[in-house]
Design a protein that fits this description.
Structural class: mainly alpha
Shape: globular
Radius of gyration: 21 Å
Number of helices: 14
Strand content: under 5%
Oligomer: single chain
Number of strands: 0
Distance between the termini: 22 Å
Amino acid sequence: MDMTEDRKDLELMDYMEPECVICDKPVGFRQKKQMIPQQRISQKLDELMGRKEYQQAENLLKYWLEEARVSLDDQGTFMLYNEMMGYYRKVSNKEKAYEAVDNAISMLDELGYRDSVSGATCYTNAATVYTAFNEPEKSIELFEKARAIYENNREHNEYKLASSYNNMATALVALGRFSEADELYHKALDVVSKCENGELEMAMTYLNMLDALISEKGIESIDDEAAVLLSEAKDCLDSRDLPRDSYYSFVCDKCVGIYRYFGWFRYARELEERIAEIDERA
């Protein structure tokens, strides 16, 4: 991947080259901090991951991590470790994902984030990594920390709170704690039902609840309950208020499989057609 191309894509206004840290400087000189363009990097990363260009995504993260370090941008470094947790989780690289977890958590105190929303995001990301690699018992304490922070800072963090409920519930399902998981799924629904365009998160929560039912009771005995949850999720996905954008396509893609699994083949095809239409416009 030509990283100069991605650099240009982030625009000169967003980033200025840090001064060389190996050049001769007067005694006592402190390198001036430069801030990396976090939002632009996240947007570019989302684009690459959406296109499944995983090597390019990793190159992007590594490149900007080095830039953040050279620039003495601790906040940028912390942000990149958090992005790396998600990236390495998605590509199933346990060693690198755990390394990113340790690096991010080690920065919480120096940045003053341990009890902040930024800290809660870190806890959630780290906990999700542990759940993904079949160590949900390691995740519960981290999810609890994140939950407490989000519940005390609900305003403007509703989606993060609901996501934390959903992710913690998934860990609880893996541990066989089904009633606790169900309670959290309903909490997530209550939060996002009050949010504008919250239907996509509601749809995913209903389907998470269905996954939990399968784990608890088995596929053979949940026909009626499954039909209700699939219908609830369908109503959310079919909402006329939702913008048919890349995020809508992403959510539909996550839902297609379970509809096909339960024999809703016509609706699965309809979702695939919506995805294709959005992708053609992109």
